[in-house]
Structures are given as structure tokens and as C-alpha cells.
Write a structure and sequence with these properties.
The complex is a heterodimer. Chain A is built from 12 helices and 8 strands. By secondary structure, chain A is of the alpha/beta class. In chain A, the strands form 2 sheets. In chain A, strands 2-1-3-4-8-7 form a 6-stranded parallel sheet, sandwiched between helices. In chain A, strands 5-6 form a two-stranded antiparallel sheet. In chain A, helix 7 links the parallel strand 3 and strand 4. In chain B, the strands form 5 sheets. In chain B, strands 11-10-12-13-15-14-20 form a 7-stranded mixed sheet, sandwiched between helices. Chain B has a 5-stranded mixed sheet with strand order 17-19-18-21-22, with helices on both faces. A 4-stranded antiparallel sheet of chain B has the order 1-8-6-3, with no helix packed on it. The longest helix of chain B is centred in the first third of the chain and has 15 residues. Chain B starts with a strand and ends with a helix. Classes of the chains: A alpha/beta, B alpha/beta. Chains A and B meet through strand 2, helix 6 and helix 7 of A and helix 3, helix 4 and helix 5 of B.
């Protein structure tokens, strides 16, 4: 089964300009992330979600587009802004939301929180809280594919802020040297917390950051899910063919603060509103779908279904019990 | 004026080497900078360059001679009785007596906790480590070795000598000098089910990678609610070597032992090295394996059985005694045993515990011994503040305070960065006399 899927993936010709079924699925996934994050923000305001909570609102097209470019067995790893990635990997919104509320029904049994969730079954390897650390780890996921001689690919996401970390370049070097199958994806949302990319990076074109290692790369409109998918297809095919790593810079934008406690004084309201009005990934996808004749009714129904799913997740996250005190002492070491 | 050519020391810890090849013969003119001989140390083959100019008069140690002590006269230049003397190729050379074996080579300690493993043979710690990795890599295709110079160079300390030939470049992997990056890469591979052995050229360099070791390797199992294991071994020399200064001489035992989610082992003998490294590789958790450069060349009796393995978390009583318990790990076991010998002659019977495992700590063995002797001294090379000695003192206080006849005492390295000067370095590291003095104050 897996083998035939792999073959189909390799021999697939480039998709027609707009594949309606695919676009509708992508739209639904982006909408699920948007609604989920809005609900998470609400629960945070109610004191049900605590600690750090980094919302993905505005950036949905990046992870949804990339997910369309990979298949079963491929790995995904990212930073702490990870809710969207988990939903894109088809992890259960209930398990994600219950982790946000710190309940036993959460993916990490309430012991990880917003930044630390995993699902090996769904190919999601976290959820990492130290800026840049996941880049080396994602390179290691690619290493394991190389070691085992399979044709799986690791999608390794990080922000433009993390792209200033030393280990990112150590990983670029290692991956290029060993020709590891990893797509490095910079989600450039313009602000590393409160510091604009102009103030944090001397490099004016982050897509060139892989050039010293001979890594192919380019920039992508990260607000356009189809553009992301097309770029992802190209990068993933390169990796699967054993040609080594690929770097994609996704130009994107987050509408909310860095985390829930961010007053966002470093940018103007107008800037945020302009991005929402002119570049929103949901708006553009919706227009395309409408132009293709997808009815308002269909889209409304989709929205309602998603709202219901998210509400169900929120209810579960509040009704699932807190972990038993005994959980404190489990999962520290694997019993040999 | 005749000039003696001396066997050079080519590394900080070299005490003897093999004179592999003479590249000049008696009668040859030698200029300063000419390569006159090749010497094999336990780590590498090195060229010896002439310092003085003139004519090589005599070769006193023929090529092929092993165990030539550092500073032995191996040849003479510009001798007055100029007649060149060719050495007899196979004759035992006058100055080539093998260096005396370290005193502890004869120690065949009571295997109080180990089952009988049958036949043993003299084995260096270096060979034992290599054998452990070879055995585990033969048995499990998911185990691989990576690190700086482990493959083509055959290991910076020759631990991995020959492994590239046997296992190939996919399983014995040279990395660039990029500890943060390759450690993270190895941890990622372990999260995906492989079982990496990461060799740090020394643990000093692992500080570059400590975020990946603690935040990624040690904590992910917990943060994932048990989903994500990290079966990985981080190994390499730890602590002081000899004359390498402050940045290369530091004990990390208490640093790593502080962290839940890690196991921390510190072998002393070849049997420790072989048995514990095999256990570490098989363990499904991240294991910090702290070796000692000076011990690499030391020889011990080690079980030859391919099944030999030691349990993690069990200390070993290396010497039985009744009056005081001396607790040490790694090379400090040597210091403790020497102190115990000295105390014996002064009528004090010391029990010496080799911890082997720092985390988990074998509280049971420690407490049983202290209940018997009522006195305890810890010995470690690292700094005293918040060190392993502090942990042992507290453990004893918690578990057997009422049995103590005197307060627990620690012997540790001095609370200073390691100095380079020979005399100062010696003053900074625990000596048997320090332990003897500490013990005597308890009576």
C-alpha cells in the first residue's frame, strides 16, 4: 500500500492550475486551524489555557500547503507555534485542545502543554520550545530516513527569528554534506516576538541563506495555499530523489501577538488590518472556490461543521479530568 | 659533542610508545626539521622531527620495538667515536624495557555484586569500550557511532579503531566540528527509533550541545506523556587529562546527574567499560557515559564472554573493609584504592566503593557499607560545591545518620579552574594523601 502510494506520488505530474477537490480540502483545513486558534484564544482569556500560547492565525496556508506535498510516513517537526501543524497532520483537535487545558485527554496527558505535543502515528515530532532546536532534530529525522534507505522526507519548520540561530546553519551544513532528505521551511512572519526581520537579520533575502551550502531554495507567497503546495511538491521531489535538502522561505504574517501576553506595540494596527484585508489565505481560497462554482451553501455548511468540531474539542478539553497526581512520576524514564 | 635523541612524548598522557620506523640511518646527515623516525602511540602514528643538526651516529632502539618509555635514549647524534653502529634488528634493546604496569593492573577485586563471568584476560579500557560497541553494533542494525574523527582517523583516542572497516561509513560517521548541530541531529534520529552512540572528543565540547542533551533528549519522554523515547548514548572522555588547562579539564558528573530523564555512568575498570557501555547502548533512555582519558591505556582483567554485561545502577565494592567507607568513581577509584593501602599499613581497614553509576545512585550499597563502617569519605575529581560528594553526604545523612560516628567528609578537586603548570595541576587534583588525611580526621 505504502509502496504504491510512494510510486504514485513520484510519477504524479504537476497538478492542474486549480484542483477543486484539493482546494476545498485545503480551505477546510485552514478554516479548522483558524477556528481552533480563535477558540484557544478564547479559552486562554477565560483562564482555561495557561502558560504560553502562540497562535497560528494568519499563517495557515503554509502548513496546509506543505502538508499537501507529503504523504504517509513523512515527518513534520516545528517550534512552539505548533497547533496548526498538528491539525494539518490530522491530529485530533480534542487531544490538542485538552493538552492546552492541561488535561489527561491531551496528547501529552497534560504534561506537555501548548508547545510540547507529539504523534508518531501521524508523523508529528513536536512541538519544541527552544528556538531553533527543532531544526537539528528535524535534520535527525531526515538522517534516520537516510540511514534506513527509505524515501521519506522530513519537513522542518522554523521562524525567521530562529534562522539566526547557529545550529540552524550547523544543520544546513550537515544536511547538505550528507544529502539528507529534509525540507527546511522558514515561516517568515516578519516579527521574531517584537523584533522585525529588518532589525534581526542582516540577510535581506532569507531564501539565500542556504546558498553557501549549495542548497536550492526560493521564496514563496506563504499566504497562498496553492503556491505553497507547488513549492512543496518541487522541494519534496528533490529530497525524495536523494538530491539533498531544500530551503523554502514562506513569506507570511501572523495576525495575533507573538503569544497571548504580547501587546504588539511593535507594529501598527493598520499594518495588521491591511494584511488581513489584502492577503488573507482564507479569503483568497474562498474567492477561487466561488469562482469555480462552489456554492455559498456548501461553504457555510463547511464552516458550521468546523465550528461544531472545534466546540466539541473545547467541551472535551474542559470535561477531561486533570491528570492524576501519580502522573507526576511517570514517563521520566522508559523501564528497561 | 654527542647529543642523545630521546623518545618524545607526543600527547599529554603518553608514557610509552612503539618505535615504528627509523627514517635516517647511522651516517646520515640530519637537518633541523627532518623527520628521523615514526612513533606509534596509543592514539596515533606520529613523525619525530630532528631538533639538532649533524650526523646520526648510533641507533640504540631498533625499529619495531614496542613499549619504549618516554625520555629513553633511542639514538645518538654527533658521537665522537664516529663509527656508525647498526642495531641488530630483533635484539631486545637496552632502553626499551616496557614501562611498569600501573599498580592496579594486578587488582582482581572481589566480584561482590557481579555473577561469575568466567574467563578473563588483560584488557585496556580502550579495547573494552571498542569491544562493547562492536558487539552491540553487530547485534543491532539500529546502533551506529558518530562524532568527530571516529571513522577515517580511527578515533581521536583510537577507541573506534577498525570500526569503519567493519561497519562502513553509514554506521561509523565522521561529523564536522559542530557539536550543537550533530547532537541535535542524533537526538532527532533517536526520536525516530535509531540508537545513536555520540562520541564527544571530550565532554568539555558537549557544553556546546547541552541544550539538546537536556531539553531535547532528557525531557521529551515526559513532555510527550511517554510517546517519544530517546535511546541514545553520549560518550567520551570527561575530567582532567594531563596538562591541558582549564577548558579541557572538567568533570561533568554532577552537571548531568542533576537532571531527571538522564542516566549517568562513570566506568573505572575495563570490565566497567565493557559491561556498562553495552548496558548503556541497550538502555531505551539517554545515557551519559563519562570516560577518562588517562584510564584508556590502563589494563585490567576483563571477562572475555560475549554475554558479559553489567546492570546500570549498581555500585561495586572493590575492596572490603570495616572501619571507613571510601566512595569514588572513574579514575578516583585508583586514588581511593591507593589511600586504602596506605591506611591498611596504619591499621585502618577501608572499604572502597566504585560507584559505576552516578544516576541512578546505588543507595543500597552505600548505606549498607556505611552502616557497617560508620564513617564515609567521598572522592571526586570535580569541584566540591554542589558536587557528587555533597549528594553522597546528604544521602548518607538521610538514610543512616544514626549509624555515623563522624560527619561525612568529601575530598574533591580544588575550587579553581584547572591550572596548566605541572605543580599547580597536581595541587588541584585529589591525591591518595588527601584521602588518607581526611579518613584519619574521622577517628
Amino acid at each position: 500500500m505504502a509502496a504504491t502510494q510512494d510510486k504514485a506520488r513520484k510519477t504524479k505530474k504537476s497538478a492542474p492550475a486549480v484542483d477543486q477537490e484539493l482546494l476545498l480540502a485545503a480551505y477546510g483545513k485552514m478554516l479548522l486551524i483558524r477556528r481552533f486558534e480563535e477558540k484557544a484564544g478564547q479559552l486562554y482569556g477565560m483562564g482555561l489555557v495557561a502558560g504560553f500560547c502562540h497562535l497560528y492565525i494568519g499563517q495557515e496556508a503554509v502548513v496546509v500547503g506543505m502538508q499537501l506535498a507529503i504523504g504517509p510516513g513523512d515527518e513534520v517537526i516545528t517550534s512552539y507555534r505548533d497547533h496548526g501543524h498538528m491539525l494539518a497532520c490530522d491530529m485530533d483537535p480534542k487531544g490538542v485542545m485538552a493538552e492546552l487545558t492541561g488535561r489527561i485527554g491531551g496528547y501529552s496527558r497534560g504534561k506537555g502543554g501548548s508547545m510540547h505535543m507529539f504523534s508518531k502515528e501521524k508523523g508529528f515530532f513536536g512541538g519544541h520550545g527552544i528556538v531553533g532546536a527543532q531544526v537539528s532534530l528535524g535534520t535527525g529525522l531526515a538522517f534516520s530516513n537516510w540511514y534506513r534507505g527509505n524515501d521519506r522526507v522530513s519537513l522542518t519548520y522554523f521562524g525567521e527569528g530562529a534562522s539566526n540561530q547557529g545550529q540552524v546553519y550547523e544543520s544546513f551544513n550537515l544536511a547538505s554534506l550528507m544529502k539528507l532528505p529534509v525540507v527546511f521551511i522558514i515561516e517568515n512572519n516578519r516579527y521574531s516576538m517584537g523584533t522585525s526581520v529588518e532589525r534581526s537579520s542582516a540577510s535581506r533575502d532569507l531564501s539565500l541563506n542556504g546558498a553557501p551550502w549549495g542548497m536550492p531554495s526560493f521564496s514563496v507567497d506563504g499566504m497562498d495555499v496553492l503556491a505553497v503546495k507547488a513549492a512543496g511538491d518541487q522541494a519534496v521531489a528533490h529530497c525524495r530523489a536523494g538530491k539533498g535538502p531544500f530551503l523554502l522561505e514562506m513569506k507570511t504574517y501572523r495576525y495575533r501577538g507573538h503569544s497571548m501576553s504580547d501587546p504588539a506595540k511593535y507594529r501598527t494596527r493598520e499594518e495588521v488590518q491591511r494584511m488581513r484585508a489584502e492577503h488573507d489565505c482564507l479569503d483568497s481560497a474562498k474567492k477561487l472556490l466561488e469562482a469555480q462554482g462552489v456554492t455559498e451553501e456548501t461553504l457555510k455548511q463547511l464552516d458550521n461543521d468546523i465550528k461544531a468540531r472545534v466546540q466539541e474539542a473545547a467541551d472535551f478539553a474542559q470535561s477531561s479530568p486533570e491528570p492524576d497526581a501519580a502522573e507526576l512520576w511517570t514517563d521520566i524514564l522508559v523501564e528497561a | 659533542m654527542a647529543i642523545d635523541i630521546l623518545m618524545p612524548a607526543l600527547s599529554p598522557t603518553m608514557t610509552e610508545g612503539k618505535l615504528a620506523k627509523w627514517l635516517k640511518q647511522p651516517g646520515d646527515a640530519v637537518k633541523s626539521g627532518d623527520v628521523i623516525a615514526e612513533i606509534e602511540t596509543d592514539k596515533a602514528t606520529m613523525e619525530v622531527e630532528a631538533v639538532d643538526e649533524g650526523v646520526l651516529s648510533k641507533i640504540l632502539v631498533p625499529e619495531g620495538t614496542e613499549g619504549v618509555a618516554v625520555n629513553a635514549v633511542i639514538g645518538v647524534m654527533n658521537a665522537e667515536d664516529a663509527a656508525p653502529v647498526a642495531p641488530k634488528p630483533a635484539a631486545a634493546p637496552p632502553m626499551a624495557a616496557p614501562a611498569p604496569k600501573p599498580a592496579h593492573a594486578a587488582v582482581t577485586s572481589q566480584e561482590l555484586h557481579d555473577p561469575e563471568w568466567g574467563e578473563t584476560k588483560p584488557t585496556t579500557v580502550r579495547e573494552a569500550l571498542r569491544e562493547a560497541m562492536n558487539l552491540e553494533m553487530r547485534a543491532d542494525a539500529d546502533v551506529f557511532l558518530m562524532g568527530e574523527e571516529v571513522a577515517q582517523y580511527q578515533g581521536a583516542y583510537k577507541i573506534s579503531q577498525g570500526m569503519l572497516d567493519e561497519f562502513g561509513p553509514r554506521r561509523v560517521i565522521d561529523t564536522p566540528i559542530t557539536e550543537h548541530g550533530f547532537t541535535g541531529m542524533a537526538v532527532g534520529a533517536a526520536m525516530n527509533g535509531l540508537k545513536p552512540i555520540v562520541e564527544f572528543m571530550t565532554f568539555n565540547f558537549a557544553m556546546q550541545a547541552v541544550d539538546q542533551i537536556i531539553n531535547s533528549a532528557a525531557k521529551t519522554l515526559y513532555m510527550s506523556g511517554g510517546q517519544m523515547g530517546c535511546p541514545i548514548v553520549f560518550r567520551g572522555p570527561n575530567g582532567a587529562a594531563a596538562r591541558v588547562g582549564a577548558q579541557h579539564s572538567q568533570c561533568y558528573a554532577s552537571w548531568y546527574a542533576h537532571c531527571p530523564g538522564l542516566k549517568v555512568l562513570a566506568p573505572w575498570s575495563a570490565a566497567d567499560a565493557k559491561g556498562l557501555l553495552r548496558a548503556a547502548i541497550r538502555d531505551p533512555n539517554p545515557v551519559i557515559f563519562l570516560e577518562n582519558e588517562i584510564l584508556y591505556g590502563h589494563s585490567f582483567d576483563c571477562p572475555v564472554s560475549d554475554d558479559f554485561i553489567l546492570p546500570i545502577g549498581r555500585a561495586k565494592i572493590e575492596r572490603v573493609g570495616t572501619d571507613v567507607t571510601i566512595i569514588a568513581f572513574s579514575i578516583m577509584v585508583d586514588v581511593a584504592l591507593k589511600a586504602a593501602e596506605a591506611l591498611e599499613s596504619q591499621g585502618i581497614s577501608a572499604e572502597v566503593i566504585n560507584l559505576r553509576s552516578i544516576r541512578p545512585l546505588d543507595v543500597e550499597t552505600i548505606v549498607a557499607s556505611v552502616k557497617k563502617t560508620s564513617r564515609v569519605v567521598s572522592v571526586e575529581e570535580g569541584w566540591p560545591f554542589a558536587g557528587i560528594g555533597a549528594e553522597i553526604a546528604m544521602t548518607v545523612t538521610e538514610h543512616c545518620f544514626d549509624w555515623l560516628d563522624a560527619p561525612p567528609v568529601r575530598v574533591a578537586g580544588l575550587d579553581v579552574p584547572m591550572p596548566y603548570a605541572a605543580n599547580l595541576e597536581k595541587l588541584a587534583l585529589p591525591q591518595p594523601g588527601w584521602v588518607v588525611d581526611a579518613v584519619k580526621k574521622l577517628f
